[in-house]
Design brief:
Number of strands: 0
Shape: flat
Number of helices: 5
Helix content: over 70%
């Protein structure tokens, strides 16, 4: 119950506000970086070893976010 009222509930509330009033293309591109933040945090805290696979994943997600960004004409 505390998880739903605390961090998870807060995350849903903030996501709802961002969807209703934000730039959806930018929000989608930024959401792609969530796994990168999690993986780099685990590596920085010593729970995971930074290796070539992590670097390749970071590059792949960043490239995907760049490809998905809105084009300005």
């Amino acid at each position: 119950m505390a998880l739903a009222a605390g961090p998870l509930g807060g995350a849903f509330y903030l996501w709802d506000r961002a969807i209703k009033g934000g730039d959806l293309a930018l929000l989608g591109a930024l959401a792609c970086f969530t796994p990168i933040i999690a993986a780099v945090s685990l590596a920085a805290l010593g729970y995971e070893k930074p290796d070539a696979a992590l670097a390749a994943a970071v590059c792949a997600v960043a490239a995907g976010a760049l490809l998905a960004r809105p084009r300005r004409h």
